[in-house]
Amino acid sequence: MTLLCNPIVWQHQHTYAHHSFTNDFDHDPDLHHFDNLIRVHRRVKHDPVFRNQTSTLFVILAYTLVVFGTCFWIPIGMIRDGSLYGIVEWTDQKRQVRSAGMFLHLLGYFLFIMVLPFCTMAWYWALAAVTVHLTTSGLCFAFFSQINHINEASLVDEHTRAKREASRDPRLLNSWAVEQVETSNDFCTESFAWHIISNGLNLQIEHHLFPGLNHCHLHLIAPVVQETCREFGVQYKVYEGWSDIFRATLEWLDKLADDTKDC
User: Fold this and answer.
1) pTM for this one?
2) Second label for 53, Cα 20 to 30 Å away, from 61, 66, 88, 246?
3) What phi and psi values does residue 228 have, to the nearest 5 degrees?
């Protein structure tokens, strides 16, 4: 995990903020990683650069930057500003050991991943090694994290949300669990291969409901979760293939790229 994200950043960004406020524009930092390149939410103001997100290649190129961001760029921003995007306060800056952990991981990642190769091999091989590491790890990370939440069905507007709640059991109003289910997506739930490749993130709904449960057990509870959602009228979204869920993300980004109308 230390090669994919700064552990201290991860605890603030993912464990706390993302899992507590999934797809909440004002509180989920995962909706703001690409604010300068990709518009993922209706409330992000239009910018001419967002027209490029109609291109699958552009989206993939943006995804190659994910690990550079989580291991290098985002920690620098948190240290500088004392928060993550002004959304999540960096409370650990007052804890000496954890604050030191943030700095040491940032320094270690920079030295061992981005500097050391240039000291041990020809510059062109070093550049290739650093680039391959950052791009491949960034793509793997993005392909099994971004697509699980970024699509039209998981980012409904207030009108749609109100309609859902009006027809739902009153006991489920403002339910954290319901929000986790309806803002997440599963794919290839019966595929052992995809479970291994995605590190269990193909069962994203179950992961969000039970984040402390080892991923190897998620497939055991998935049928119970799905049946419970059906019983209480909660939208449980499953895509048959990885390409289907990725296509849903691309279609949503394509829709948001149009600056002539607001969706």
Assistant:
1) 0.89
2) 88
3) -65, -40
